[in-house]
Queue: 2 jobs
Job 1
Amino acid sequence: MRIGIDARELSGRVTGVGRYLAGLLHEWAIDASTSVHQFVLYAPELIALGLDARRFPTRLVRGRSGTWWEQVRAPRAARLDHLDVWFAPGYSAPLALKVPTVVVIHDLSFVGHPEWFRLREGARRRWLTRQAARKARAIITVSQFSRRELIERLAVPEGRIHVIPPGIGTGDWGLGTEGGHRVPGPLVAGPPVPSPLVPSPLVPSPYRVLYAGSILNRRHVVDLIRAFAPIARGHAGASLDIVGDNRSYPREDLQQSIAAEALEAQVRWHDYVTDEQLQELYAHARAFAFLSEYEGLGLTPLEALNAGVPPVLLDTPAARESCGDAAVYVPVSNVPAATRALESVLFDEAVRSRILTAAPNELAKYSWPRAARETIEVLERAGAGASRSG
């Protein structure tokens, strides 16, 4: 079977959807049972994952990787490739492509909370996702919470939804390196050309708090800074690392929030780090904070748990589903409660022990081999009997 994949998110700076797709591709590359398939990756530039060019050819489709690229440029290229099925790992898919599609819808924040998005962006995402969900042969989502959202908000038939939690961690995927040549021609692939990115040295800190994820209003990063401030004033060795680009709307000024609390010496904001740098931050953190009031599935708290770092989360259904007993939960918009929770995971050994003892049971739900196996089964069923008329 020939599987076309929207691989835009593996170009340039790889973040959430890109890391999700990289995890699946890595497992398919080493799983002998998938060797009967060819995975054709469509991207605006060469992908720096070092995959086997015969099984994972990359079709370079030039242009900015937005809606026009997805709906016009990519399907125009795909029609020449006689695909059996199209895999869309990030919410929407080409609507005019005449092959079965499988789309991954991680969450419906833009449907449930349109106020978090610019008017045009929110409308575009809602329309494309609704249309993709209607057209798709199957829909994959990452949690039971998101499954309920799909049924209630988009009226997706329950039988077309497959809940497949992702794995945790990135292994040796080659993520976090920016580069790769732009190569002309139809199907091309080759080894990545990494940039010499060197992790910046960490400031020594025995009580390091870490946040990782794009800066969105629903993740209350400004509240995190305020919650951390009393800890910083009481413990000169405490520090907070914030990792993520600022996608907030209305725009939040993190630097101003840091300055307002006089925390310039104890809070560092990194808009992007390589995977190597992120792993170093996890390794040196003592607490992880992710005060998000809406997620399909929060992956970075699970990555923190996997690194032995207790998380502090807002008390939401999705957070409870993902981390269970392996977290400390706080109410939404309660800064003093967040401060107390951070203090408990930083300084209370009994709390830390309870969380880390519960972690293996929660982490067992997340496996890249299982996610890859279940996802390829969905793709195989969707592509069975395809006309190959792409």
Job 2
Amino acid sequence: MIGVGGADVTRQCLKAGLLDEIGIDLVPVLLESGVRLFECLGIEPVELEITSVTPDTGVTHLRYRVLK
């Protein structure tokens, strides 16, 4: 297993079809700017299958399988 971090690198790997799984740690904080993970992929919609949702204090951990 190889992990990638950051929205830009993750988006490039997703666009190239190199990701098998996506993990998102969702923290409810509003930011004025940033890089949107699923914006401007320039490819067909990516189908995801949720594999786990783990709530914790101040964060929800989401895991998805990328369907190919």
